[in-house]
What does this fold into?
Amino acid sequence: GKLPQDSWFALGRLLTDPGEDPVLLSWSGSMFEYLMPQLVMPLYENTLLAKTSRATVRRQIAYATEKGTPWGISESAYNLQDANLNYQYRAFGVPGLGLTRGLEENLVIAPYATMLALMVMPESAVSNLQLLSAKGMEAEYGFYEALDFTASRLPRGKTSIAIESYMIHHQGMGLLSLAYVLLNKPLQQRFLSELRFQATLLLLQERIPRATLFYAHTADQIESHAEASGTQVRIINTPNTRTPAIQLLSNGRYQIMISNSGAGYSRWKQLAVTRWREDPTRDDRGIFCYLKDVGSGNFWSNTFEPTLRPAKSYETIFSPGSVEFRRHDQGIDTHTEIVISPEDDMEMRRVRITNTSLFTRVIDITSYAEVVIATQASDESHPAFSNLFVETEILPEYKAIICTRRPRSDEEMPPWMFHLMNVHGVPIENLSYETARLPFIGRGRNLSHPRAMDSESLSGSQGAVLDPIVAIRGRISLKPRQTATIDLIYGMSETREGGESLMNKYRDEHLKSRAFELSWTHNQVLLRQINATEADARLYDQLSASIVYPDPTFRGETAVIESNHRGQSGLWSHSVSGDLPIVLLHMSDQENLGLALQVIQAHAYWRLKGLSVDLVIWNEDHGSYRQVLQDQILGMVNTDAGGQTYQKPGGIFVRSADQISPEDRILFESVARVIFYDHKGSLAEQVNRIHIEKNAFPFLPTSLRRGEDNSDNLGLPDNLLFNNGTGGFTPDGKEYTILTDRKRTTPAPWVNVIANAEVGTVVSESGSAYTWAVN
It folds into this structure.
């Protein structure tokens, strides 16, 4: 009673024309705004509210038909999650019905919106609910919350994604709509029985305005002409790039780096899981998979490494949260997808093999990885000693191998590594295992053609082997056009029981698929955490290759490097250890602080991806505003992105250039793997600039020459003592003569040591050697 009824009809209500009679304009054009009141209040025919309700549903149907999707747009959860993996929530609507701009940028279909429409157009609503059910939107507790069709929030290759949650108020609205249709409007009758409402029912009976009524101006429906950005991917069609291109994947505890050749590392909590060396010329360490056509004897790998066999077609795809390899060899298509589970410390390499030939093919699949379970530094300093502590065990019941290190003390609790192979789509036969590197590769061979590729099965050795690996082989048979899926799973656990639990868990097909689905979502959450876009992440991944593998493009000038005469200890006075790669940023102008902000964001991205980098920022402003620039840079650092690691290993170090000696400047510029200057453009411009070598010489043309094979003319002398067919002593006992060829070598390395007190060298029977001085 505080407001006269006359005032209601004096209110100005904005009207719009969605293609027929005028209807009321809402804020966001959502189904909820138009139809929610009807859940409890009566609706009268030939009134403005009734006309608006029908026009709204028809406009929603027409809009969804244009987009080729089911209809029903309202406020709902959508495919964006916070750090706790909670779905975000907002209002969505139809352009032309809402005042809000940008409604065309999102397309989220909520089943409860269709259920609201049961009260207006029940037959159309039932048909739409049946369509949503056919798309998998119906589950144990009713319809899922929503179906998101917005391209910028979808993983690559998907047209929509279900928001698999339930909101009780939306479920309640759906039940009230069903009661309206099936139980003769019980809530509306209860509404009418209330005397206070009866006194104001005229407000619900406003007639449709005349056509001459003034229409308030509203923004025309805006159709987005810009293409949806979609998922940012990098596609590389060759493994033979000038420097390796890489992608970083991580769940915060487990990290992997993959190059476009298929090599890379796996690490867990500062421990190297598998063996890797920083060598851009070879790039031949990592986790690999061999494929062998049993009928012809030909073999290749699912990536370029380690067999180095060129494929008919080859493609590497770096996308958010995953890495893919596609290749075609001798009538076999191979598609490999690599992800890390956001929930567990494991990586999955899913290899899909399709027989595109016209006859049945029998294929052997063999996995291979060298086991470390130690820090990268200790493995590099003494790999042979480190190997001695690793023990392996074959678990046939899991189709798996499990490894750990023998503890060096009673207090040490070494972690456990596991590797298992799952196959679905076809049966797998002839499973065999190997945990020793020597019998797998063989004497005088390498991973491009290991001895295991010439044998029917793996030897099955296990225990305290000298050089531990994990390798599993299985055989499948593929009919023409048939596809098999092989899941190679590697993981780490604090205990053996935890490892066995994970192996049990990931025998479930649904849980394995969940890991692939969540990997993209986890990557989106990570980017949201540092306020970065997918385009930013692509740029930072592109730059990370020059941090992992030394690249002269981003390093200091040759003359500067040659003039350096200081060692790693020269960095220590600046709190920089020199154990980690260094990125150096020269800042001299406040106008270019955007570059500093982006480099700091890149550092945060690398840290979240498990790549430890020391970021050194030099304040080179020599004017009166030097301290202002220093404070502004520190303000950027002391945010959530970088403040936690300021002045710590793997963190950010801000220094005034006038406090750095000329010798230290040369040292930093000599050891930094990447150097940026704020006067050379944006980060993207500096990363993508065309680098021209100043003194580049043309490549030397080469031609293949086949020398004469004189091996048949060589033979062991007849007078050798203890001649075993490969070698023997000369009669005076002072020399040992060995004969080797392409097919025959000694069963174990035979070396000769030549040394004095200061310098020495080792030469083996195959010609390999290394030389040392002092220590």
About this structure: The chain has 19 helices and 36 strands. The mean pLDDT is 88. Residues 509-529 form the longest helix (21 residues). The radius of gyration is 34 Å.
